[in-house]
Each structure stands twice: as C-alpha cells, then as structure tokens.
Specification:
Shape: globular
Number of domains: 1
CATH architecture: Alpha-Beta Complex
Number of strands: 9
Order of helices and strands: EEHEEHHEEHEEHHHEHHHH
Strand content: 15-25%
CATH topology: 2-enoyl-CoA Hydratase, Chain A, domain 1
CATH superfamily: 2-enoyl-CoA Hydratase, Chain A, domain 1
Helix content: 40-55%
Number of helices: 11
Length: 256
C-alpha cells in the first residue's frame, strides 16, 4: 500500500444523485474517535445534500470492512468521561444513519468485528462479499456490544444478537449473517458486489426522495429514543473499559 493511502480518512464523493462515503484506517479499518466523528458528520451532511438521493457506505482496502474500536485508543482511556466520549462516537454514527432521510447502502467487502457489525446492521441495506464473516468481540475484552447492540438486535433479532454477544470469540460466516438478516445480498466476488451496489443505488437515485424518506421513517419506527439510549449504553462501555480485566485483555490482543 502506498504512503498516500496509509493515513486514516473519511471522504465523500457525490455524483449523479449518489453520495459515496468511504472510511479507512491502516489497522484493518478500526475506528478511533476522530474517524467516528468525521463519519457521523459525513453521513449527516450527505443526508442534507439536495444533490444526493442515496448514500453508499464503504471502507477502503480489500480484507476487512471494519475491525471495530481502535485498541490504541481504548488503552488510552483513563476516566469514565473519556470512555463515554469515545463510545459516544459509535452512537453518533448509528444515530446519524438512523435519522438520515436517505437510504444508506453498505458495501461490505470483508470481515466485520464489533462496531463493524454495528455499522452493517445500522445500514438500511447491506450487500456483502461471501468472505465477510462477522464477530461481536466486545465481551472478550471485558465490555459488551452495548452501543451497537440495539442496531444489531433490530436487524437480526434477539436470538442472533444473543448468540453473537455471548460467543464473543467465534466467527459466524457470511451465510449465517445473510440468513439472520444482517446482509441483504451475498455475492461470490467483489465485481459482483460492486455491480449489485451500482445497480441498486442507480435505481434509488431515480426514485422519489419523499417516498424513500417516508419509508425510512417507517423502517426505523420505535427507535426515536435511541439518542438517549445509545448515550446510556456508551456510558456502560466507558465504565467497564477501565477495569483491570479490560486493560489486560486489550494488552494481550495488542501483543499478538
């Protein structure tokens, strides 16, 4: 990978009624606070852009869609206030997708871990490569999928969410994720993934913005309290991440 794309970024490109938001981090697209805040802002801005009718959410690189929270940043958290601030970043992204009046279509080209599963679940429609296995790893580092949990449970149901949250060390394959509703489509090569994304968003870009906005309101019915709920969940993670268990677990993961 060249030096030009080794630094983390969030970038937006809008063309022909389609806003494509891409995020990248050199550590398997893990998400530090800065990237989370930029991603939430990009989604909110695209939602307000009159030149855009639909949003594509994607990440750079080929192997991992999103590895979740940045361990480098987690280990630096020294107070509950700092923990709340960090985990609120995931809450901001999920809530930005939730209140955005436009459909968010996720292009999932690789594995999803922790917060990455949350992003896929928050998206209104996810098109994935068949190597895009998933794992909610939070319990393994002494916390839990508290912030992303509502999005995952909403999309996949309580049974699948429970299985993922409890068995935090095991991968579930993309077929399992598809069968349980996380992914809307599965394809066997990245060319077919991109073709499916392009076909869908092209159609949506020609559809009625008002009708899509009304549909999105219906799809997200019952989540109006998430602004408060996800903040409360972020506080739980922010407290637990300070435990000796979490500190030791993160150090072990970082040393692998």
């Amino acid at each position: 990978m060249s030096e030009e794309i080794m630094e983390a970024y969030v970038k937006t490109n809008t063309s022909n009624g389609i806003s494509t938001i891409e995020f990248f981090h050199p550590q398997s697209n893990s998400l530090p606070g800065k990237i989370l805040n930029e991603l939430a802002e990009a989604i909110s801005n695209a939602g307000l852009d009159k030149n855009s009718s639909v949003i594509v959410l994607r990440s750079g690189g080929a192997k991992t869609f999103c590895a979740g929270a940045s361990f480098d940043e987690l280990i630096k958290i020294k107070s509950e206030a700092e923990g709340l601030t960090f985990f609120s970043g995931f809450a901001k992204v999920i809530n930005a997708i939730r209140v955005c009046p436009k459909f968010v279509i996720a292009r999932i080209q690789g594995k999803c871990v922790g917060g990455g599963v949350g992003l896929a679940a928050a998206a209104d429609y996810a098109i994935a490569l068949d190597t895009a296995d998933i794992k909610l790893s939070e319990l393994a580092v002494g916390i839990g999928p508290f912030v992303v949990g509502p999005a995952v449970e909403r999309k996949m149901g309580t049974s699948a969410f429970t299985s993922l949250a409890i068995d935090a060390s095991s991968w579930r394959n993309s077929q399992w994720a598809f069968q349980n509703g996380l992914f809307s489509e599965l394809h066997n090569n990245i060319e077919n993934v991109d073709a499916a994304v392009e076909k869908l968003v092209h159609t949506l870009s020609k559809s009625s913005p008002e009708a899509m906005a009304e549909l999105k309101t219906i799809f997200w019915k019952g989540t109006e309290h998430w602004g408060t709920l996800l903040s409360e969940r972020a506080a739980i993670s922010g407290r637990l991440i300070l435990s000796d268990f979490s500190i030791n677990a993160i150090e072990k993961f970082k040393s692998k």
